[in-house]
Design brief:
Radius of gyration: 34 Å
Distance between the termini: 69 Å
Order of helices and strands: HEEEEHEHEHH
Number of helices: 5
Number of domains: 1
Largest sheet: 6 strands, mixed
């Protein structure tokens, strides 16, 4: 189970982790809609926040990325470390320009962990009364536009991440198949053990019955009274 969770989470992380630093193309939108995903490779409990409306989000129109995503993720990670005493959590933040878009993404992502066919996970919810994202001001971190070489490097990095995500997904599928095979073999072994035990009990009962039906083979004592001799015969 932990192996499957690890590969599943790796696929999700590769798909979600994208460049988040602000650039000259970043613009401030009046509001956006965010939700968080929190998990750990050592257990099968995962958390989702509600979709939250956040004011003044920074958005890159050319790449359609939320800027400062890593900072929002750190807000969530710090909450789990300080308030829930759960350090070393993997935190991913996703967003939409509309609530409908964000909720659609949330439903799709939750389905990966609520579908029992894909794994046995315990999904917990973190509402806005427990945790709320704070607006991130990226104004002081604006950088110059990427050069052609930087763009090419970023393109290669994305391609590499996509290949890793694809490989992770394949490994998760393989791990799940192996787990199903092992469970099937274990079930077959349990069935054979029950049948063997049943057969052993049957043979034992048969042996006891045969022993009970056998005549008394002890030699007759010539000094026994006639009545006891008749009983022995």
């Amino acid at each position: 189970m932990m192996k499957i969770l690890k590969y599943s989470m790796l696929a999700v992380i590769m798909a979600a982790v994208l460049p988040t630093s602000a650039s000259a193309k970043g613009v401030v939108l009046p509001k956006g809609y965010l939700f968080g995903f929190i998990a750990n490779f050592t257990d099968s409990v995962v958390y989702f926040t509600d979709v939250q409306e956040v004011d003044s989000i920074w958005y890159d129109k050319s790449s359609h990325f939320l800027l400062g995503r890593d900072i929002y993720a750190n807000q969530l990670r710090n909450y789990f470390t300080e308030n829930m005493k759960m350090p070393h959590r993997t935190c991913i933040v996703s967003f939409g320009l509309s609530r409908k878009d964000a909720e659609k993404k949330l439903v799709k992502m939750r389905k990966l962990y609520t579908d029992k066919k894909k794994g046995n996970y315990e999904v917990r919810n973190l509402n806005e009364n427990q945790f709320r994202f704070s607006t991130v001001n990226m104004e002081e971190t604006i950088e110059a536009p990427m050069t052609k070489a930087e763009k090419e490097a970023a393109k290669k990095a994305r391609k590499k991440a996509e290949l890793k995500a694809k490989a992770a997904k394949k490994e998760a599928k393989k791990a799940k198949k192996e787990a199903e095979k092992a469970e099937k073999e274990a079930a077959q072994a349990r069935k054979e053990a029950r049948e063997a035990a049943k057969e052993a009990r049957k043979q034992s009962a048969k042996a006891r019955k045969a022993q009970k039906d056998m005549p008394d083979q002890r030699p007759l004592d010539p000094n026994l009274p006639p009545a006891e001799v008749e009983m022995r015969e």
